[in-house]
Design goal:
Blueprint: H1 2-57, H2 63-79, H3 81-91, H4 93-114, H5 124-142, H6 146-154, H7 159-193, H8 204-225, H9 239-253, H10 257-287, H11 320-340, H12 357-365, H13 367-381, H14 387-393, E1 398-399, E2 402-403, H15 411-436, H16 442-469, H17 505-529, H18 535-561, H19 571-592, H20 596-606
Antiparallel strand pairs: 1-2
Helix pairs in contact: 1-2, 1-6, 1-7, 1-8, 2-5, 2-10, 2-18, 3-4, 3-5, 3-18, 4-5, 4-8, 6-7, 7-8, 9-10, 10-11, 10-18, 11-13, 11-18, 13-16, 13-17, 13-18, 13-19, 15-17, 16-17, 16-19, 17-18, 17-20
Subcellular location: Membrane
Family: Belongs to the major facilitator superfamily. Proton-dependent oligopeptide transporter (POT/PTR) (TC 2.A.17) family.
Keywords: Membrane, Transmembrane, Transmembrane helix
């Protein structure tokens, strides 16, 4: 009896050793995946953070069109997340990441070649192809799959594996932020200032984007190098997705009523919205003539006179396509929200299927929440990608004898996330829970995040008013290297104002705090509210509305409200519109979460206690 017991104990011990050994074997490919993510995020943010400045100063686009093109770039990156997720469900994550990474690397090579100083004017088309097509497609294939592929290497059968997954997601979050800090803290500054004694100022973009290309090539080689040690799970197929489409179309013609038709119309409006937004932005960009006029130096003019400028103070122009795009986007979102607040329109299919009408109703019921929160929050968030850096570029950027790039200040967002996440988790949430006698719920965090996002844009508007009232910086070092019109010899351009650019840390940090409150909660909501079979699809839709649809709206709003000349236009209006829409989003949130059957469908998800953890990656800077 004793011997049998000892034998069982030895077998258990061996089993534990095998489990531990298995985890140790997988550690090396997991490290490789973390390095891949670090390299990819470093490359992405180096481009996304400086693309607007490159378009306006090197390719001579107007600031409003440059901001719109930057929004289109982000829109396309998130758009491809849905095909990327569906492709992974079909052929598996490994093959999808290999294909997307290769396309991404080719795109970065195209961009790196196109920004060589002597070739910039003639290869503008290659820059557009590389960034708007190849890099966008590659990002969309990697973004929704790389974290899950890393978790696949660990597995979730045993409790030890699940604990190891939590550690992996923490390290994954850390790798993202390391990439963000390198991109914004170092490479973005080299685009406009070069690297003293190493890289001439004229070749700053080729050095930064070339470094990104090298990192992306390295990422692909690292990922391929660990192929023999990966655990590769097969694709699950697209059956549930096809059945959702069948439920939608079947319900329109078999008793679903006007709500079924409205839901279908909303889905059909989305691709039209994209097509018109792309056409509006790209046609406007191609129709522009190069800006070669010289800025008149305001420091040489009497102080009582308004400084003459090259660019007009309004936005990029109000055209028919902008109106159509705004109408289509608004219709798509309104139709999808109204139709799916109550999903009783979903009708049972005649033939029996494993994914039933109840599952379809639960899936459609998650859509209004995903749309309202993501649009309301990310319109404010998107200010961080173009408006905040542009505002900083016309403030005092000097640090010693060099100038910072406006995109550098994005590090305040990443730093706020790193600093405040543990404070919220360890101190703030437990304190609030003790005071109110119940845990802080997911929905309460979302509301607080939307309020903080609105405050961030109001703070930016107040700061912009202070900037416009400040005097110009006169003297040889007064021209901004990242504002419109800067010349290669530094003899002309836009004057900085005598107010420190470090003030822009405030709205950047406020956006970071808002991210902590909103984005992880939306990841959790999308997971909890969706049936098991379509969780990947709903997460992809969450990313789609988070980055793609919101950036499509931002592209349209930029065309209408973003001033080409910040000193004569009103960037304040752009910020206030974003803040107002966030407040409207809060009101709509309360409506949809308290509307009859819909409230019952999603309330378990929004009332869930959520500890904001690092597993919710990446929402430009995307963490």
């Amino acid at each position: 009896m004793t011997n049998d017991s000892e034998s069982d104990s030895e077998q258990d011990s061996e089993s534990e050793l095998e489990d531990h050994a298995g985890l140790k074997i997988r550690k090396l490919p997991v490290v490789g995946i973390l390095l891949v993510e670090l390299c990819e995020r470093l490359t992405y943010y180096t481009l996304a953070g400086t693309q607007k400045i490159y378009l306006q100063n090197q390719l001579k686009k107007t600031p409003s069109t440059s901001a719109a093109l930057n929004s289109v770039f982000n829109m396309l990156c998130y758009f491809w997340c849905v095909p990327g997720g569906l492709l992974a469900d079909s052929i598996g994550r490994y093959k999808t990441i290999i294909a997307a990474g290769s396309i991404y690397a080719i795109g970065t090579i195209c961009v790196g070649i196109s920004v060589i100083y002597e070739l910039q004017a003639s290869l503008g088309w290659l820059f557009m192809l590389g960034s708007l097509v190849l890099i966008a497609m590659g990002t969309g294939g990697i973004k929704p799959n790389i974290a899950n592929f890393g978790a696949d290497q660990i597995g979730d059968v045993s409790e030890k594996q699940r604990e190891c997954q939590k550690t992996f997601f923490s390290l994954f979050y850390l790798s993202i932020n390391i990439g963000v800090l390198i991109a914004f803290g170092f490479l973005t500054n080299t685009t406009t200032a070069g690297l003293a004694g190493v890289v001439p100022q004229q070749e700053g973009y080729s050095f930064a984007y070339g470094s990104g290309a090298g990192c992306m090539i390295l990422a692909v080689l690292i990922f391929v190098g660990f192929t023999g040690s990966y655990t590769m799970l097969p694709g699950n197929g697209l059956g549930p997705v096809r059945r959702l489409i069948r439920y939608q179309y079947y319900s329109v013609w078999h008793g679903g009523g006007w709500k079924a038709a409205m839901s279908l119309a909303g889905f059909l409006c989305l691709p039209l919205f994209y097509i018109v937004t792309l056409a509006d932005t790209l046609l406007s960009a191609s129709a522009e003539k190069s800006n070669t006029e010289v800025f008149t130096d305001p420091c040489a003019a009497p102080l009582t006179e308004a400084p003459p400028r090259m660019l007009h103070g309004g936005g990029g122009g109000h055209g028919v396509l902008s109106d159509i795009a705004l109408a289509l986007g608004s219709m798509a979102c309104i139709f999808l929200v109204v139709a799916n607040v109550n999903c009783t329109w979903v009708q049972e299919l005649k033939q029996e299927v494993s994914f039933g009408a109840k599952d379809a109703r639960q899936t459609f019921a998650a859509i209004p929440m995903i749309i309202v929160v993501n649009i309301a929050f990310n319109l404010c968030y998107n200010s961080m990608n173009n408006a905040f850096p542009s505002q900083a570029c016309q403030m005092d950027l000097r640090l010693g004898t060099t100038q910072l790039n406006g995109a550098f200040f994005n590090i305040a967002d990443a730093m706020a996330i790193v600093i405040f996440t543990p404070i919220f988790e360890s101190c703030l949430y437990p304190l609030i829970a003790r005071v109110k006698g119940s845990p802080v719920r997911l929905g309460q965090k979302i509301i607080a995040g939307l309020v903080m996002a609105a405050i961030s844009n109001v703070a930016a508007a107040i700061l912009e008013s202070m900037r416009k009232d400040a005097p110009y910086l006169c003297g040889d070092a007064g021209f901004s290297q990242c504002a419109p019109g800067y010349s290669d010899d530094g003899a002309e351009g836009t004057r900085m104002k005598d107010i420190s650019a470090f003030w822009i840390f405030i709205p950047f940090a406020l956006v970071g705090i808002a991210e902590i409150l909103v984005n992880p909660c939306m990841y959790c909501f999308s997971y909890e509210a969706a049936p098991l079979e379509v969780r990947s699809l709903i997460q992809a839709l969450n990313l789609f509305f988070m980055g793609s649809v919101s950036n499509a709206f931002t592209a349209v709003v930029s065309k209408l409200l973003y001033p080409n000349d910040l000193d004569k236009g009103s960037l304040d209006n752009y910020y206030f519109v974003n803040a107002i829409l966030a407040v409207i989003g809060i009101a709509v949130y309360f409506l949809i979460t308290r509307c009859g059957d819909h409230g019952h469908e999603i309330r378990p998800a929004i009332e869930k206690e959520l500890v904001v953890g690092p597993m919710e990656e990446d929402s430009p800077p995307d963490v």
